[in-house]
Amino acid sequence: MLEEQIFDIRLHDRAAFHCGVSALDDYLHKYAAQQNAKGLSTVFVMVDDAVPRRILGFYTLSAAQIDVQQLSNTERKKLPRYPVPCFRMGRLARAIESRGAGLGETLIGCAVDRCLHARSLVGAYALLVDAKDEKAKSFYERYGFIPCVDASMTLYLPLG
Questions:
Q1: Which of 12, 55, 99, 135 is the most buried (most CB within 10 A)?
Q2: Considering 27, 140, 143, 156, which one is annotated as catalytic?
Q3: Does the annotation mark 143 as catalytic?
Q4: Which residues in 75-107 are b (16+ Cβ under 10 Å) and which e?
């Protein structure tokens, strides 16, 4: 059974993870533990409880804000005129061997669930993502993410 966990270098084999995007692989291999420890982001991993050391995928969450002018006209009308608090999913990746299994969708669902829970404790309007390319942008748009007005590769998902 799949299980989402907070990344722990003592429990999870980061060196064996490969998603095919060197920047994402490098992040998990070299920087994830440091950023976790410094409070810059929290890294969540997906594992199979039968092989709990093997990372099948991961995503990161951190605090963020967005200028209200970057949101759609409909969204802007409902919000104050100052930067709006949000969460940012800075990275999302799934292992090469997990392609086609719906793990990307599962990871987004887990991230949204975490943000909704955190939103009950700390105010935040949306979940932000920065798509690395058009393929990633299309992936996020399939799940309801909306491109920002002046930065179409930055997308947001209202959490209300």
A1: 55
A2: 140
A3: no
A4: beeeeeeeebebbbbbbbbbbeebeeeebbebb
